[in-house]
Amino acid sequence: MIEQIYTYFTIEMIYFWLNLGVLPFWFVLIIFPQSQICRILTTSIFPIFVLSLVYGYLLYITFHNGYNFLTNFDLYLGLSRLSNLFSDNSFLILFWTHFLAINLFCGGWIVKDSQKFGINKMLMFFPLLITYLIGPIGIIIYWVVRIFYAKRINLYD
C-alpha cells in the first residue's frame, strides 16, 4: 500500500494537488474573510501545517532520489546558477511549495490585520487576489489601504 501511495504522488501529481489544494483556502480568504470557517481553518496554522507535511514529504523524496542539497546554495552565486537550479524539477517543486505556503500565510495575515482595523471586506478583494498571484505587490497594496484606515504610517507593525 505504501508503494502505491509513493508511485501515485509523483512530482507532477503533487504539483497538481498543491495548486488545487490552496484554492479553497484562498476562496474563503477572499469571499468569506469574516466567517467562522475562515478563522478556524484558513487563518489558523492548519493550511501551513498541511503544506509543511507536503514539503517534508518532498524533502524525503528528493533526498531518497539522491538530490544534492548543497547545490541549493548556488542560488546566491548568480542569476545563471539560479536558472540552473530551476531546471531541476526537485528544486522547482520545493520552491513552489515554499511560495504557496508563504503567500497563503501572508493572505491570512492580511485578513486578520484588516479585521483588526475594520477594513471593508469588499476593499480587501483586490489586495488578497494580488497577494495570491504576485505576493509582495499585494502586501504593498494592502499596506497602502491600511494606512488610510489606521490613519497613520507604521513601518514596524
What features would you describe in this structure?
This protein has a domain at 2-108. The chain has eight helices and no strands. The longest helix has 28 residues, at 89-116. The protein has 157 residues and is mainly α. Helices cover 73% and strands 0% of the residues. The mean pLDDT is 87.
Order of helices and strands: HHHHHHHH
Main pleated sheet: none
Mean of all residue-level pLDDT scores: 87
State the separation between the terminal residues, measured CA to CA: 49 Å
Number of helices: 8
Rg over alpha carbons:
18 Å
Helix proportion range:
over 70%
Give the tags.
mainly alpha; 157 residues
Secondary structure elements and their pairing?
Layout: H1 2-8, H2 11-31, H3 36-42, H4 46-64, H5 79-86, H6 89-116, H7 125-134, H8 136-150
Helix pairs in contact: 2-3, 2-4, 2-6, 2-7, 4-6, 6-7, 6-8, 7-8
Brief overview:
The protein is mainly α and 157 residues long. The protein is built from 8 helices and no strands.
